[in-house]
Amino acid sequence: MSAIIATTELASSRMRVTYRTAGDRAILIEYGEQFPVDLKINFFVHAAARHLDEYGVRGLLEVAPGLRSLLVYYEPHVLSQASLVSALDELHQEIPDPASIVLPSRRIRLPIAFDDSTSREAVNRYRISTRPDAPNVVEGNNVDYVVRCNGLPDRETLYSTILQSEWWNAFTGFYPGLPSLLPLDPRSEISAPKYNPARSWTPEGAVALGGPCLVIHPIESAGSYELLGRTLPISELIRRSRSHRVDPILIYPCDRISFFRISEAELIELRRQVFEGTYDYQIEPGEYAVAEHFTAVQDEHVNAEAIRRRTDRDAALELVEVP
């Protein structure tokens, strides 16, 4: 029996919409195609989530946005599956074309220490205890493997690629508070295969790359993304007097993250300030007009350079060993 309830196509953008059963209390809505990752679809997902929250459908419990999907929870005793799909169809027609979407979006600046000793410790533990022959472990780190995967000449080029773009929090998931970031500048697109098998330990604050997504680990956990460096804590399980937020999670969906480079010694000092409650995170409230992204992508110079980098990356991936 198929899990697909219905499929349709949006009149404004010709985007395919698929409704799937997700247990007896939820519907999974998928937009567009699975590959390649498309920021335009993700913008639409967040616009749909916000619109659905404001729509006031009786019996609707919660909406969880993903990279190219929405998971919609409902109370089946109040709202039937068919009625929910009908309401969702109506909702989709009211959402403007992605280029016209404006979303609440804060700017957050975070420091990063690349190839720090704690990340190296996690890589070394993995090499010793799990997979001594892991091809993604190069001289005790993952950074050099990511450089090779993307056809980049050296580490500094990788670092500047990460630093030059704002990173869009496309979705928060896998576990609470874990942001999955995509670059708004297409020239900063990077990608890497994941660990196989996964690591048993990843330090809190680790910045890592898996597929096209950059993540920041909010807690110590297992992990399978390539470790690139470390930043400040992005979750706060103990409320402090100078807390910069009400929510214990720092990064919200649709936030834009930019990184600035510091040394590991400087990072250790800033982390000490965070734990003492004296550090003020750099957060700027605001909105993001999706048209800004479309303007950048359509720039001939930016687009040509992005295509060249993508071609170099695809060629490089053919030459590296996948874990």
Helix run count: 8
Instruction: Quickly name the level 1 CATH class of the largest domain.
Output: Mainly Beta
Count of folded domains: 2
What's the overall average pLDDT, rounded?
93
| Cα gyration radius (Å) | 21 Å
CATH homology superfamily name of the largest domain: Cyclophilin-like
Span between termini: 35 Å
CATH topology of the largest domain: Cyclophilin
Structural class, judged by helices and strands? Answer: alpha+beta
Percentage of residues in DSSP E strands: 25-35%
Q: What coarse outline follows from CA principal-axis ratios?
A: globular
The counted number of beta strands is: 17
Q: Can you give the helix content as a percent range?
A: 25-40%
Order of helices and strands: EEEHEEHEEHHHEEEEEEEEHEEHH
Largest sheet: 7 strands, mixed, barrel
CATH architecture of the largest domain: Beta Barrel
Strand order of the largest sheet: 7-14-11-12-9-8-15
Low-confidence stretches: none
GO molecular function: ATP binding; hydrolase activity
Protein name: Allophanate hydrolase subunit 1
Domain Carboxyltransferase: 17-251
Organism: Haloechinothrix alba
Characterise this structure.
This protein is of the alpha+beta class and 323 residues long. It has two domains: 4-96, Gyrase A, domain 2 (2-Layer Sandwich), CATH 3.30.1360.40; 107-317, Cyclophilin-like (Cyclophilin, Beta Barrel). It is 31% helix and 26% strand. It has helices at residues 39-55, 81-94, 117-129, 143-149, 155-163, 264-276, 290-298, 300-317; strands spanning 4-9, 16-21, 26-31, 60-65, 69-74, 102-104, 107-114, 167-172, 179-183, 199-202, 206-210, 213-216, 221-223, 226-230, 256-261, 282-284, 287-289. The strands form four sheets. The protein has a seven-stranded mixed β-barrel with strand order 7-14-11-12-9-8-15, surrounded by four helices. A five-stranded antiparallel beta sheet has the order 1-2-3-5-4, covered by helices on one side. The longest helix has 18 residues, at 300-317.
